[in-house]
Amino acid sequence: MPTYDYKCTACGHQFEKFQSITAAPVRKCPRCGKAKVRRLIGMGAGVIFKGSGFHQTDYRSESYRKAAEKDMPPSCDAKNCPADPSKCPKARKDESE
Questions:
Q1: Which residues does 81 contact at the CB level (< 8 Å), separation at least 6?
Q2: What is the Cα–Cα distance from 96 to 4, expressed in whole angstroms?
Q3: What is the pLDDT of residues 63-86, one digit of tens each?
């Protein structure tokens, strides 16, 4: 659930509210009680997906995969990878077939 920023246009009070995306926006100011609260547009949180299983690591373009394979040593394959096998594009390709 996201945290929303609000500001009362009557008294200037700013506050945050942790609520569901489907919840109605807050309208009443907790300080002055007037129905003059507006939801502010925020920057939002940056989401970082790490590890395998995400678009950034698993669904690269074909040209990117070919360039990555060129950077690997010729002896790199699923059975004999000098690097970490989980990071070897040839190893991952062989496992998925």
A1: 88, 90, 91
A2: 42
A3: 777 877 777 666 655 555 655 656
Pairing mode, if any, of strands 14-18 and 37-39?
unpaired
Q: Which domain holds residue 77?
A: 61-96
CA distance 14 to 34: 13
Whether 54 is in a domain gets the answer: no
Residue 46: inside a domain, yes or no? no
Q: Is 49 domain-assigned?
A: no
- Say if 66 falls within a structural domain: yes
What's the one-letter identity of residue 66?
A: K
Inter-residue contact 66 to 93 (CB < 8 Å): no
Could you report the per-residue pLDDT of 14-37, keeping only the tens digit for each?
999 988 889 999 999 999 999 999
Number of domains forming the structure of the chain: 2
